[in-house]
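quick q for whoever's on today - can somebody do inverse folding on this one?? i tried earlier but teh output was garbage lol. tokens:
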């Protein structure tokens, strides 16, 4: 009986810790899912000295938080201001790239917006949500195009359920030995 109480207590404790970590991840940024991930990342949002530039580490942190992943590994395919894809200007437009794009970031001022491209070769972009102090939409600085590694990241919820299942299996094994 004591063993059951310990297992139930352990599972409840792990569940509470797990749900608490999800709640923290959900409040990290202002990402929203819909027809494609659109995630606005402002300067210093992650406390890592982010200057508002769409550097790999900053984009990976934002995506991991938005998608509730432990981590995500991105590879920069190229940037529009370095000749990858079309030259961009204004507040919206379209893009075409020679390689499949998993995500792209639209950089403007001290912020950027992350969009899910779902391995597309073409798409549209906007700086919507990146406004100046007067509330006016800002012009684009550049677009960065990203691919993901071949290894699929394990979502945090799946990892938690696997852990709970493993603990249940250990409890069943121990119970079988005691009988």
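ok took a stab at it. sequence:
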């Amino acid at each position: 009986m004591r063993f059951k109480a310990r297992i139930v207590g352990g599972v409840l404790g792990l569940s509470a810790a797990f749900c608490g970590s999800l709640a923290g991840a959900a409040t990290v940024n202002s990402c929203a899912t819909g027809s494609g991930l659109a995630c606005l990342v402002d300067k210093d949002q992650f406390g890592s000295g982010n200057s508002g530039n769409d550097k790999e580490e900053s984009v990976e942190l934002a995506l991991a938080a938005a998608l509730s992943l432990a981590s995500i590994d991105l590879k920069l395919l190229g940037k529009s201001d370095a000749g990858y894809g079309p030259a961009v200007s204004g507040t919206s437009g379209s893009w075409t790239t020679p390689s499949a794009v998993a995500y792209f970031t639209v950089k403007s001022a001290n912020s950027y917006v992350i969009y899910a491209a779902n391995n597309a070769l073409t798409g549209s972009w906007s700086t919507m949500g990146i406004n100046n102090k007067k509330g006016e939409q800002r012009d684009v600085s550049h677009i960065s195009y990203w691919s993901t590694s071949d290894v699929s990241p394990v979502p945090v919820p799946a990892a938690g359920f696997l852990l709970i299942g493993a603990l249940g299996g250990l409890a069943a094994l121990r119970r079988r030995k005691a009988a």
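fwiw Strands lie at 30-32, 38-42, 74-79, 92-108, 111-126, 142-148. also The chain has three helices and six strands. so keep that in mind when u check it
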